[in-house]
């Protein structure tokens, strides 16, 4: 005959164990076990040291000429432009009849053919454009970082009308399927737009980029793209004193654009041809977009956090499992029968001490790493100064400290479930650290899947580069790029930690100590 033992419950009234007293008791446990404060201090020191050493090992020779946009950030401003000056208010209208590849290598999804108002021919100057793309329909874009979607018309199959009007600093983009019924896409304001601007047809395409990843490594090929666009019914309303002029913005009449591909992949200058029936055919290359190929100086400043996570996992696990190993958990639950309060107090204490230490470590580590990067050549204007008290640096510093804290709480919660130090540490390492390592070796789709569904997604909080949806880019884990946005990735770790705490609470209520 078998009997089921009834879980032990103290006869002391739970009211005697107020939560404030529990917090004090758990804090006393933490600070009186000498090894734990030592581990916390070592974790902070190692995090700072590796942040600095990691940045010191990075160097750059400078990327040459850098084009800065209206907001002072690096941009790509290279395209074929058939234009004329417009003084005062007016509008430009055209029908785009087709866009296709001119180099036989396929048409890029973000190839662009349309009309533009640009403050000058200087690279990086402000602009507004209404354009067609092969895969993303009709768009209105301005000042490199702004994008509004219009209809999803496929201009490679169906001609489409575009119109851009100027009234002072205000510009409005329109589209039409028939040239009679117009739909507004967006109305914007370009502050400081000069009285005389350049308006006309433009054409560009991002370079061809192919990435192949396997267990043996990563290969990336880059080659200049060349695109062809056809237009008709070009009409300009407003005051203009000269005829149409053709320019490769960012290039020269005799060679490829300065911001284009490397010389080995050079593409010829753009061309403009006009038929007797008024059809314009432009060929060109380059792009009009934020620059997305530079290193992430914010993410490069937090390499020590990856190692600091190992210390926090160990600390969080031991803070719970040591009491099970030594049988002290019975004493704890005798003094405080409200087991969930004990779990909450332990989680609060470990979260507070690890966040405090993590915040000091990440703030100091970031500051020292930025100094090391500046010493090694990562300086303005190509790499603008980053302030610790402004985003994205502030978000990365505080988010990294919160990451370290949540990892410790996750380990504590799983320690309450598994009640074994080695098993708990190994489990959390597999969840948080192993996906990071495997992502460097797995094929890219599998690597990005791992970094979406595991707690390792939280490292996205360290990203400092904004990835714009209107720019095609290769998100490689080894480059510090994560498939989720910073706070979305961090939310994955929050969800895992909350689930582990709920499981720990269920385990504590269901089973004896």
Question: Can you walk through the features of this model?
Answer:
- There is one protein chain.
- This protein is an alpha+beta fold.
- It folds into 2 domains: 16-60 and 295-510, no CATH class; 75-290, Jelly Rolls (Sandwich).
- Helix content is 36%, strand content 24%.
- It contains 10 helices and 17 strands.
- The strands form 3 sheets. Strands 2, 3, 4, 5, 6, 7, 8, 9, 10, 13, 14, 15 and 16 form a 13-stranded antiparallel sheet that branches. Strands 1-17 form a two-stranded antiparallel ribbon. It has a two-stranded antiparallel sheet with strand order 11-12.
- The longest helix is centred in the last third of the chain and has 37 residues, at 339-375.
- The protein is elongated, with a radius of gyration of 30 Å.
- It starts with 18 loop residues before the first helix and ends with a helix.
- 44% of the residues are buried.
- Residues 7-15 and 252-265 have low confidence and may be disordered.
């Amino acid at each position: 005959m078998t009997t089921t033992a009834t879980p032990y419950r103290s006869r002391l009234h739970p009211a005697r164990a107020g939560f404030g007293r529990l917090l004090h008791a758990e804090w006393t446990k933490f600070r009186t076990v000498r090894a734990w404060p030592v581990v916390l201090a070592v974790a902070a020191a190692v995090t700072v040291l590796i942040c600095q050493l990691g940045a010191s090992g990075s160097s750059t020779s400078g990327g040459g000429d850098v084009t800065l946009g209206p907001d002072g950030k690096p941009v790509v401003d290279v395209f074929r432009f058939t234009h004329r000056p417009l003084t005062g208010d007016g509008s430009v209208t055209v029908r785009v009849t087709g866009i296709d590849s001119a180099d036989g290598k396929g048409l890029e999804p973000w190839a662009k053919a349309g009309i533009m108002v640009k403050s000058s021919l200087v690279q990086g100057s402000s602009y507004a454009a209404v354009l067609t793309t092969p895969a993303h329909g009709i768009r209105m874009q301005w000042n490199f970082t702004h994008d509004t979607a219009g209809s999803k018309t496929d201009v490679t199959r169906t001609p489409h009308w575009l119109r851009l009007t100027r009234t002072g600093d205000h510009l409005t983009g329109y589209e039409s399927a028939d040239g009679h019924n117009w739909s507004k896409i967006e109305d914007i304001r370009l502050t400081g737009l000069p009285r005389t601007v350049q308006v006309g047809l433009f054409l560009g395409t991002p370079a061809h980029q192919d990435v192949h990843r396997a267990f043996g490594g990563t290969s990336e090929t880059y080659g200049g793209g060349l695109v062809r666009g056809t237009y008709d019914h070009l009409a300009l309303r407003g005051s203009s004193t000269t005829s149409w002029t053709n320019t490769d913005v960012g290039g020269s009449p005799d060679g490829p654009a300065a911001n284009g591909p490397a010389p080995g992949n050079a593409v010829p200058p753009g061309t403009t041809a006009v038929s007797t029936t008024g059809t314009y055919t432009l060929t060109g290359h380059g792009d009009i977009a934020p620059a997305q190929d530079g290193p992430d100086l914010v993410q490069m400043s937090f390499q020590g956090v990856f190692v600091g996570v190992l210390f926090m996992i160990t600390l969080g696990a031991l803070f719970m499992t040591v009491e099970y190993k030594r049988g002290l958990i019975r004493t704890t639950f005798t003094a405080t029968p409200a087991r969930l309060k004990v779990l909450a107090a332990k989680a609060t204490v470990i979260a507070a001490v690890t966040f405090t230490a993590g915040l000091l470590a990440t703030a100091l580590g970031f500051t020292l790493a930025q100094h090391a990067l500046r010493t090694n050549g990562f300086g303005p204007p190509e790499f603008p100064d980053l302030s610790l008290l402004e985003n994205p640096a502030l978000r990365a510093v505080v988010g990294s400290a919160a990451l370290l804290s949540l990892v410790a709480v996750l380990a504590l919660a799983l320690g309450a479930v598994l009640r074994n130090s080695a098993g708990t540490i190994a489990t959390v390492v597999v969840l948080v650290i192993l996906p990071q390592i495997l992502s460097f070796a797995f094929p890219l789709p599998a690597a990005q899947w791992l970094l979406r569904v595991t707690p390792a997604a939280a490292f996205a909080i360290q990203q400092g580069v904004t990835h714009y949806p209107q720019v095609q880019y290769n998100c490689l884990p080894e480059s510090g790029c994560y498939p989720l946005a910073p706070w979305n990735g961090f939310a994955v770790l929050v969800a895992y930690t909350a689930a582990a705490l709920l499981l720990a609470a269920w385990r504590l209520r269901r089973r004896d100590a």
